[in-house]
Amino acid sequence: MNAKKGGNACIQKEYYLSPARHLTDVELELVWKKPLSHKISVEEIRICKEVKRNWDRGEMKIANILLEGDAGSGKTQLAKALSADFGLPYTKVTCFADMDKSDIIGAILPVISSERLEKMEPTDQIILKALYESDGFQSTIKILMDVLGVTQEQAVWKMKQLLKLVEENTGEEVVEYRFYPSEIVRAYQNGYLLEVQEPTVIRDAAVLMALNSALESDGSINLPTGTINRHPDFIAVITTNRSYVGCRPLNEALRDRIQHVEKMDLPSKEVMIERAIAKTNYRNEKVLDVLADIIILLDRTARANAIKGVAGMRSFFFWTDAIAEGASVKESIYHKVIYKITTDAEEIKLLEEALKSQGLFAKLDNMENEQKDYLDAIEIRTEGKIDAVDLPSENGSDENGIPLKKSDDSDQCSSDISDESAVMESSDLGERGTPVYHQSVPELMSEDLKQKERAFRKKLNQEAREIVSKSIHKGVKLIVHRPDFLLENQREYESLSKELMPVVQEIAKRTIPLLDYENATELAKKQYYGSKFQADNVAYQDFRYFSRKLPPNESPSLVVGLRVDESASMSAFGRLEAAKRAVLAVYEFCQICDIPILIYGDTADASKLEQMSIYAYTDFEQKNVNDRYRLMGIRARSNNRDGMALRIIAERLALSPQKTKLLISISDGQPKAMENYTGSYAVKDMQQTISEFERKGVTFLAAAIGQDKEVISQIYGKERFLDITDLKQFPAQLVQIIARYL
Question: Would you indicate the residue range of the signal peptide (predicted)?
């Protein structure tokens, strides 16, 4: 984002949209105050001019703005700056996958008597009192976050629990209810500037429809207390990351209501240095120039090697600040930059080699002496003026966006592999114009194998559609994908496997002797010949009177199916990473023990033409050594239609010859997909599917790794429920569970 030279005064009040409007004291407090470190950007000037020019032009009025770009490119900083420029109170709402309409319009809460309130737990009393004493300005979720000091998702869970508790404590008495408007409603009704962060993660279609309605130029919102109309001063600024894990393309209807879009790019080196000076007041531009080069190089190296950490503006600011305070330039790079990117020894070595190859480590050595001289000069002048090297101002707080750049495994949003895609080399351009190539494995590139893959994918699609043709999902548009893999997928696998394989191999080492025993002693009955005569079979008169031992080279009598929920909410709290690690561990364990395994991911509502997406990462019908790399493509995508995915996988397992058929579902939440596949309807479908295929010999287990553990337990039943509390232990735990079924 390019910055315009100059201070803040040049834009102050020039773009006020309603100069005659009188704000209350509370509203004045909400108008953002630009810190001294704020630098006016060309994007800010452009938006201000466009909005001001069209403000009184009726249908040409610009009041819905989209800021789209990488994490940390300054989107929120710009949204706040527009609040100051337009003279409007600023507020925001951060969207999350499981938002429902109450998060858009507000909540209706029962008010219980003080006598009953006193009988409740102290924490619940504090929460309810805070809600009852609030003026309704903040959303209920925000109040809980402030009172309890918890995350937004935890606050949502606590609110659901609290509503249930309040209902139990009202007894037979007449209950009074109070409506608490959301921040969206307050901004909409009172004419504030509202930042809507990441609406791309929302799964519920009803929530998106409510947002769409609110963004109409003459829109209205229906509340339990009546209908409210859009205030003429209301401005919506939607901020969203490009290609971010868990996000999908912005809803088409929502995008259509946008009147101005800014593509937010990360700043140039010159702007990085300018911002660092403003933030830290450290003015040695020669040093800053080298630090900026290092940040840029480390970021590029991390991307190129699929290292998931980030080297961005925040690292730059804090590293600069540490050096300004006298920290060693070379030592502090590890604590302020490199260890934020990774603590893996091999990955650190890659970053160090990149710095050495560009001569930047040598420059750091030279800067040690220069920095010492600079600090000595400051110390000498401490008896006189030290304005030029003043400590960072408290007012210059870190309001700026932090460029947490998208890692190579970030979600590319929705389904990006068509039914007709083939395994081939790609000349697609990456995010910075660099070519991205598919894994160049000679045997994969042969025409015969490509044809075989296409035929197999076609077969999977035909079979899956046939499986659901007589179920409630028969009208759902389904595509089964056979994902390709990239070089970064292979690198990610190699990185993860180094950590996981020792654990997997140890469990396999203990398991294989059991398999040898099973294979050596288990008898195949009703054979025409064998080592043991079975007199009870003579009655059938079919000459199958013998049984024989299974030879040692026959596979174990277990087949495993893993279903991975690839809904958008899996991107939160490290769930996706935990699921990917667990899947990799199970896959390698099954390879060592020669256990047939099928691993499918699924998501719903990728598009109108693709209402259900199945991703066949591995399949026991067509084994491929490169399947392990495909698994690294598991990602958070959209909604989830669990019953349909379970039915497709369960049918594949039911038809397999193995005696024990184990289906494990890894999920973080309850089913939710368009149209109306949610609530009791979806739960009933899942339970019927489980019951139907258990009669066919399929054993179901549910590994719950999210906030809806109680609901998942109710759906699957406690006997099939695995409560995964420690995600770090999840891979080993899952492998051990499978080993017990042998």
Answer: none
Cβ neighbors of 293 (< 8 A, separation 6 or more) are 269, 358, 360
**Residue 8 Cα distances to 15, 18, 41, angstroms:** 12, 20, 11
Chain centroid offset of residue 225 CA:
35
Residue 581 near residue 666 (C-beta atoms within 8 A)? no
pTM as predicted: 0.46
Which helix (H) or strand (E) is 541 found in, with range? none
Q: Cα dist. 153→95, 96, 103, 160, 702 in Å?
A: 10, 8, 12, 11, 21
Q: Taking a C-beta distance cutoff of 8 angstroms, is the pair 97, 202 a contact? A: yes
Backbone angles phi, psi at 45, to 5 degrees: -60, -45
Question: Do the Cβ atoms of 706 and 579 come closer than 8 Å?
Answer: no
- Give per-residue pLDDT as tens, 348-360: 999 999 999 999 9
The answer to whether the beta carbons of residues 143 and 134 sit under 8 Å apart is yes
- Mean pLDDT of the residues in the chain: 75
How many other CB atoms are found less than 10 A from the CB of residue 348? 16
Beta carbons of 570 and 621 less than 8 angstroms apart: no
> Is the CA virtual torsion 647, 648, 653, 657 positive or negative?
positive
Query: Average pLDDT for residues 177-203, to the nearest whole number?
Result: 86
- What's the count of helices (H) and strands (E) in the chain, helices before strands? 27, 21
- Give the least confident one: 280-289, 448-457, 499-508: 499-508
* Rounded Cα–Cα distance for residues 590 and 607 (Å): 34
Local structure of 265: helix, strand or coil:
coil
Range among 118-132, 146-160, 486-500 with highest mean pLDDT value:
486-500
Average pLDDT over residues 682-690: 88
d(CA 563, CA 623): 17
Angle subtended by helix axes 269-280 and 285-304, to nearest 10: 120
Determine the Cα–Cα distance for residues 693 and 647; give it in Å rounded to an integer: 8
Residue 230 near residue 216, CB atoms below 8 Å? yes
Q: What is the Cα–Cα distance from 479 to 461, expressed in whole angstroms?
A: 6
Strand intervals (E) in 50-192: 64-69, 90-94, 106-111, 176-181
CA distance 671 to 687: 12
Give pLDDT tens digits for 654-681.
888 877 888 888 887 777 778 788 888 8
Sequence letter at residue 153: E
Cα–Cα dist 40/12, whole Å: 11
Q: Using omega within 30 degrees of 0 as the cis cutoff, is the peptide bond preceding 270 cis?
A: no
Residue 660 sits at φ, ψ, to 5 deg, of -105, 125
Q: How many CB atoms are closer than 10 A to CB 187?
A: 28
For 1, the token pair is 């984002």
CA–CA gap between residue 118 and residue 622 (Å, rounded): 64
- In what side-by-side order are the strands of the sheet with 523-527? 523-527, 546-549, 532-533
